[in-house]
Amino acid sequence: MGGIMNTLHRTFMGVLACSFASLISFYGTQGYAADEVLPPPEGASSIEEELYFKTEEIVTGPGKRAMKAEEAPANVFVITNEDIVQSGQTSLAEVLRRVPGMDAIYISSGESQVSMRGFAGPIIDGTRMAVLIDGRLFQHEFISGILWQQIPVPLDDIKQIEVIAGPMSSLYGNKAMLGIINIVTYEPEETRTKIEAGGGSYWLGKGDFVHAQSFDAAKKYWYKITGHYLRYNDFTDWRGTGKQKAEEDLAVTGKFLAKPVDGTKAWLNAGASQSNGLASFGPLLSGNERRVFVDGNFEQDMGEWGQFNLKSYWERHYLEVPDFPGLGTLEIDNVEAEARHNISFDITSDIENTLTYGFDYRYGDISNAPVQSLNDIGGYLQDEFRFYDKVILNGGVRVDYQKEFIGLNVAAHGSVVWLPHPKYTLKAGFGSAFNNPNYLHFYTNLLQPLVNPAVGTLVGNTDIKAEEILYLDVGNTIRPIDRLTLHANFFYYRMNNLITPTVSLAPPTAQFQNDGGAEAIGGEIRAEGQIAKWLEGYGQWAYEKFNAINGNANPTPNLGNPKNKVGAGLRGKWFDGRFTANVDFEYTMHYYRQNGAINFNFIPVERIDDFYMLNARVAYWPIKNHLELAVAANNILDDNSAQTPLFDPTFGFVLAERPTFNVWGSIRYVF
Questions:
Q1: Burial of 274 (0-12, 13-18, 19+ CB in 10 A)
Q2: Which of 155, 320, 488, 559 is the most buried (most CB within 10 A)?
Q3: What is the mean pLDDT of the chain?
Q4: pLDDT at 14
Q5: 251: closest CA among 295, 207, 197, 200?
Q6: So what's the pLDDT on residue 413?
């Protein structure tokens, strides 16, 4: 362990030193003065100039309230609307490749599998990350995973994505074991009407619509409607079955916002979506799914008594998977409700305290299951102390009660943020988190018998425990010169009670069990900045190393991601912003993984080769700020290396497809 730590430390310091030297040297030879790129306010002091050059990103995910990203009690990576649009991607999961430490694995024409810092499992294991849309949980409750193409939000309506790298169970409870992805959409009063249409390879068809309008002259009442459509067709199945994969997704949402008096805000959002095709149900099977949902939010600013927030959510899935024997049609209901209060007060003129606490309830119900519901009740408390705006101490605890099987879970965290200089930030966090089993872990016997008699019956287990993690996370942000930012993060994870299926004979039976654990160590380095007035870029490296611990007899399912990933990108703007271009590259090192949808300890391991991904997009605005014409090309190197096993020999499923070069064009009008 000590050798690993020393090696990693030397590597990080070496790369960091080289980055400093090379980038400072590069900028020093360019001859650009600071005021040629980002001129500070006239007459500003040296301290004000330093603050002016400092990015002030506001995030809500790390503390369930608005705060500066650099002051948040966790390492946060923000993807902006420009990042999303300029990426040229049609899938939000592919956009996440630009996040250091994020594992985005291509599995089909319409889907990718996403996880953080290496703990990716097969489809049945879910993501171990909570994905939120404007603060509400979005996931497929049946598998605890995310079908990214089914997110009912047009990409151009996303204001920003906040990726919190590190466990967040102390605030969000179950599903936030490795972090959260908080998708923040534009408020109606921030929305510009947009229409986009496009098409390309594999009969790609895409259409998005966003519109918002105020009801009254005082602009206290608003409505907003969005529409999203995406389809693929004729996507060849590389396993040679002769079938052509297809994917079609449609979503419509409507939102009503009211601000009747100062300090009061309420909104109601409702929508419906439908997805169907031969790749809809993760990478496994053909399927059709419909969703309807309603969610609401109420906020009240109580002045010196802080802010009160109340929100609720209801969603129903209709899932049909005709190719799976005995599954039939499932109806899945999800209900959430949360009440939260935060209050700030000054202890002295230089010491401030902010207290956040709340309670939430989650209910899930699934038809055809032996036990048809799961109930989760949780309460959390987080306290923050600010000392002289230089040191921020944060601590929190959460208690969850899962009524049916798991019982009590406790998660806690502590962190320190040190701001010794406007150009440097140091963060350190530690604590515990958990991840409850999902429906399939409990109820898999509703799917028996399986198609392979060598395995026999796969059964659920209501006695399994929640997965647990202890963690240490350290982050550094440095701005050695204007227009350049360096990030260096380090993490250590120790997971226990990992869930994996084990097989017994007489009769042949496979059952989910808690089997030992895994230890992970790694980190990320990223450099980003403005090279010239018209050009900006980034470069990053992520490293992950795993060890099986505590008698883990089957570590392979938990060690299924590469040690090294390298990424880089450039973005340019010319002719007063009328012409833009973007290029992104990612190298993913080879790794080993079992070739199964459910990883059994007897399934052989398959090598997944090195993978090289190059994407680009160019756009022209013939009517500046209104009409955009764009062309995007993805997987330009046409690297057909599979990013995950293609076939499950146990069940006979086609698991995934190889990436293929594709190109598409779009026209977008902004009113």
A1: middle
A2: 559
A3: 81
A4: 45
A5: 207
A6: 95
What single string gives the DSSP state of each residue in 198-239?
EEEGGGEEEEEEEEEEESSTT--EEEEEEEEEEEEEEEE-TT
Token pair in block for residue 253: 């949402």
Q: If you search the block for the tokens 């010319």, which residue do you land on?
A: 574
| Entry field: residues in the chain | 671
Q: What percent of the chain has pLDDT over 70?
A: 77
Q: Is 513 helix (H, G, I), strand (E, B) or coil?
A: strand
What amino acid occupies position 452? Answer: N
pLDDT of residue 515: 78
**In whole angstroms, what is the distance from residue 383 CA to residue 355 CA?**
5
Structure token pair of residue 75: 């390492």
Going by C-alpha positions, the residue among 60, 81, 66 that lies closest to residue 159 is 81
Residue 197 sits at φ, ψ, to 5 deg, of -140, 145
- Pairing, β 112-116 against β 264-281: unpaired
Give pLDDT, residue 244: 58
The number of beta carbons lying within 10 Å of the beta carbon of residue 107 is 24
Please report how many Cα atoms fall inside a 13 Å half-sphere around the Cα of residue 225, on the Cβ side. Answer: 5
For residues 289 and 478, give the distance between their C-alpha atoms in angstroms, rounded to a whole number: 46
Residue 104: which pLDDT band, with cuts at 50, 70 and 90? confident
pTM over 0.85: yes
The sign of the CA dihedral 143, 146, 150, 152 is positive
Better-scored residue on pLDDT, 172 or 600: 172
- E-strand ranges in 479-599 read 484-496, 499-504, 509-514, 517-532, 535-549, 564-574, 579-588, 591-594
What is the C-alpha to C-alpha distance for residues 360 and 377, in angstroms, rounded to an integer?
6
Q: Report which secondary-structure segment, H or E, holds 430.
A: strand 424-435
Residue 293 CA to residue 313 CA, distance in Å, equals 7
Alpha helices in 68-148 (DSSP H): 81-87, 92-95
Query: Which of 104-108, 373-377, 401-405, 484-488: highest mean pLDDT?
Result: 484-488
Q: Residue 89: name the closest of 211, 230, 277 by CA.
A: 230
Nearest to 115 by CA among 544, 526, 527, 605: 544
Above 90 in pLDDT, residue 507?
no
**318 and 329 Cβ atoms separated by less than 8 Å:** yes
**Under 8 Å between Cβ of 176 and 210:** no
Which region among 121-125, 307-311, 328-332, 434-438 has the lowest average model confidence (pLDDT)?
Answer: 121-125
164 strand-pairing partners: 76, 180
Structure tokens at 221: 């009442």
**Cα gap 577→555, rounded to integer Å:** 51
What confidence tier does 16 reach under pLDDT thresholds 50, 70, 90? very low
Q: What gap in Å lies between CA 212 and CA 222, rounded to an integer?
A: 7
CA nearest neighbour of 582 among 558, 548, 618, 621: 618
Helix (H, G, I), strand (E, B) or coil at 105: strand
Q: Is-contact 619 579, C-beta < 8 A?
A: yes
Which of the pair, 17 or 538, is modelled with greater confidence? 538
Instruction: Quickly state the pLDDT bin for 233 (edges 50, 70, 90).
Output: confident
Tell me: pLDDT of 57 over 60. Answer: yes
